Amino acid sequence: EAGVAQSPRYKIIEKRQSVAFWCNPISGHATLYWYQQILGQGPKLLIQFQNNGVVDDSQLPKDRFSAERLKGVDSTLKIQPAKLEDSAVYLCASSLVNRVYEVGELFFGEGSRLTVL
Amino acid sequence: LAKTTQPISMDSYEGQEVNITCSHNNIATNDYITWYQQFPSQGPRFIIQGYKTKVTNEVASLFIPADRKSSTLSLPRVSLSDTAVYYCLVGDVYSGAGSYQLTFGKGTKLSVIP
To answer: Is there a contact between A101 and B49 if contact means CB atoms under 8 Å apart?
Structure first.
């Protein structure tokens, strides 16, 4: 079974430039998550989709970050303009389960490492 | 949101059993407890999940006392390849909208020594 695919693996940009990350979840997984992981910290949830609808984006810095999930499958996360503090690994995860109270297994991709100079 | 507290780091020799305890004092009635493992340059990987008492799979065991205010991940006979960061998560009900948010803490960095 193919896992969660992410690209690019690495990206270096200068501050104020823009960048986009792509994620292809495991086939059939309705729920998709984007996490930000800063070096030395645990992953922080940015946005959660169920199919193509946003379930939770309370921690997404909406002045510069945007995300979409067209047709309930692939997703893109965009940062524009980037700041130095956006340097992090951006992890995409997907899950079959989204019932209230129950936490299913999240399948993570390898992540996209962003360096902002 | 239910918060978790774990030791920042632990060391263990190869072949020993390792127990990592996570505190989650304000866990909600219907929350589940989940543990993930993360190697450098990789995304976290699911290890085990439970609600109460004991759960065991081929990789680990999870012990949850009756009050559910803590949980212990037990890794039997660790090897060098078990060196990783281990995260304890508690599934939250978020704003009653039928969604939930998984909150990762800083995790426990386990170092296995030869």
So the answer is: no
